[in-house]
Amino acid sequence: MYLAGLSWKKAERLLSDGTIAVMPLGSVEEHGPIGPLGTDYLIPEEFARRIEASFPNDVVVLPAMPYGYAPTLTSFPGTIDIGIETLTAVLNGIATGMLRSGVRKFLFLNGHGGNNVALDRVALEIYRAGGQAATIDWWILAGQLNREWIGGHGAGQEAAMMMALRPEWVDRSDLCDAEVNHFSDALRNTHLHQISFGGGFVRMIRDVRDSVPTGGFGGPDESSAATPEWGDRMFDAVTEYIEAFIREFLKLDVGR
């Protein structure tokens, strides 16, 4: 069921402490030269749609939260950053509303790493209010399910997902080679803010446009490797995993 489609009468009848509130969220931000700005919330929204089809009576899908915390990406046109405190406050308000409606279980389907601090804060507040929250970062999970699917930011992994989901929004004519401005030969970016040094990694924060002018950092893959078929395989595998987790989460008694 979808929260937006319920009347308050239906919500009163159908929502309970056995219901899982599923919330897709992400960010509106640059995703490399060919990735749509809505990549980070559109992918979790599709996972939520698939999950609802499998659990129409056990989950309630909340409207997707499109905006997130993305301060290091604001030099790229189209990026929207609402700040960590605003994001936390909005998520807390959403959680409070669902708790008042009797829901005690929450699943955040996250598409943007910058949201994690806010999600952890809100998850703890949900716990203290008598509930339990879980967060799944789909892009990390995909790489855990298959190491060949490990991806960077705005590169092959995410481009492939969008090719499978909204192919008309991915324009390959803008494809270009990734450009990275490393600090030095000894201090090299292995991700947007992750620097390799002496066999380990150090976080060094910069405006992403200064470190990766093209906005896409591929890790072991690049946008040129993206195909709709790769995206379809990831969608299917990650969906199967999330559904297995939901079946286990539904068994959990969160009453304290």
Structural account:
This protein has 256 residues and is α/β, with parallel strands linked by helices. The chain has 2 domains: 3-177 and 219-251, Creatininase (Rossmann fold), CATH 3.40.50; 180-213, no CATH class. Helix content is 39%, strand content 12%. The chain has 8 helices and 7 strands; from the N terminus they run H-E-H-E-H-E-H-E-H-H-E-E-E-H-H. It has helices at residues 8-14, 39-54, 84-100, 116-128, 138-145, 156-165, 208-211, 228-251, and strands at residues 20-25, 59-61, 105-110, 132-137, 188-189, 194-197, 200-203. It has a 4-stranded parallel sheet with strand order 2-1-3-4, sandwiched between helices. Strands 5-6-7 form a 3-stranded antiparallel sheet, with no helix packed on it. Helix 2 (39-54) crosses helix 6. The longest helix is centred in the last third of the chain and has 24 residues, at 228-251. It is globular and about 60 Å long. The two termini are 27 Å apart. The mean pLDDT is 94.
